[in-house]
Amino acid sequence: MSGAKPIAANVPAMMLMGFAFGSTPPTTERRNVMMLSVEIWRGTSSGHFQPFEVPCRDNQTVLDVVTEIQREQDPTLAYRFACRVGMCGSCAMVVNGRPRWTCRTRACEVAAGDGRLTLEPLRNFTIVRDLAVEMTDFFDKWRDAKGYFEPGAAPAADFAMVPPASRERQAADAGIECIGCGVCYSACDVVAWDKDYLGPAALNRAWTLVNDVRDRAHDARLAAVSGASGCLACHTHMSCTNFCPKGIAPTYSIAGLKRAMLTRTLRGRR
Amino acid sequence: MSAVLFVAQRLSAAVLAVAVAVHLATILYAVRGGLTAGEILGRTRGNGWFLAFYVLFVVAVAVHAPIGLRNVMREWTRWRGATLDLAMAACAAILLALGLRAVIALFVA
Could you tell me if the ipTM is greater than 0.90? Predict the structure, then answer.
């Protein structure tokens, strides 16, 4: 993503697609342009906030602000993005103290009033540099929670018929749209004090699979999430549910896992 | 927390929800009614219902409190492992012994 030529070559395509990034503000806007005061974390676990000034534009997202700074003011700024339309989950950051997906967050909404933006990397992750974080532990915990489909030793020979109105299907649908952005993980207090805690995203994924009638690893999955750092460690603070940009409620998924685990234990399984 | 401890904590909490309410109501009745210590002892002495209720109460406390304390210790300190489990088992034993001692004392007084 570095180098002037590829960027310049991409700009017309981006504009055709309706993105505001890289576009020149209209002349009338330039006469009395309002500036955003942006403070961005620079460094790793130790570092400092670096101030920037960026023109405030209509429909400008926080990701647009970061991109403008990186491409026009400081090319050494590290951050991560890919789709810019709320599908990939790679651009999440802490904006004015709250974890958010920056590509779908309008700068004018979060900087309303004083025109200030403070951007930090996601909490509870190891910082690679500036706004980019290491997500290996986050996705390793999806694996540890058996957050993957298990077809069993003898996979079904035909399509499974899963009625959309069935209880299991609706429970799975409620959590299936997770894009793995890490916002819930960043917001979770339990992750902050227990680094081994599987976290809301991995447990939410486990709950969707517990409700997948085609899956053949329900018992092993419940065993995997029933440990000291599994679903039982959740304190139901609901920060994950509060901040999830997709409107998913991992807290309810975790509560579902607790119920399923309770039933499993009462039946004598450990 | 293991699944078994989780279940034990939830079941004991269900017992305590009722037991604490009954216990508080009993205290209010005894105080507001102006009962003397002798009158209270007269009601508890040889009372099988009193004995059964408070034994259940004490057992629920002895199960519930150490599990919760264990969680707090694990989350706020680095204390883990067998020593923590032994300490919490001792805590349960102390609560059980002290509680049952008091209940039996009132039953046979």
Answer: no
